[in-house]
Q: What sequence folds into this?
C-alpha cells in the first residue's frame, strides 16, 4: 500500500464522518482545535480507521493521533510503507 493510498483512504473516512466540516479538513487540521471534535468524536474517528485498515490502534497510540497526517504516518509505519 502506498503513502498516497493511505492518505486518500484516511481523508475519505474523515469526509464521511458527519461531524467534520469538509471545507476545514486538511492533513494538518487538528481534530479538536480546527475541526471542533470532542474526545468522543476522536474515539469514533480512531475506531473508523481501525475498521478501514483492519487492525486495532492501542489507546496509548490513539491519544497521539491528533491530525489526519498523524494517522497517515501511523498507518504507514504499521504497514511498513516507506516513501
A:
Amino acid at each position: 500500500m502506498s503513502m498516497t493510498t493511505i492518505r486518500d483512504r484516511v481523508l475519505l473516512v474523515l469526509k464521511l464522518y458527519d461531524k467534520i466540516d469538509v471545507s476545514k479538513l486538511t492533513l494538518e487540521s487538528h481534530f479538536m482545535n480546527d475541526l471542533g471534535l470532542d474526545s468522543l468524536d476522536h474515539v469514533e474517528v480512531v475506531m473508523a480507521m481501525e475498521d478501514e485498515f483492519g487492525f486495532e490502534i492501542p489507546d496509548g497510540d490513539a491519544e497521539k493521533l491528533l491530525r489526519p497526517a498523524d494517522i497517515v504516518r501511523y498507518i504507514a509505519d504499521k504497514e511498513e510503507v516507506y516513501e
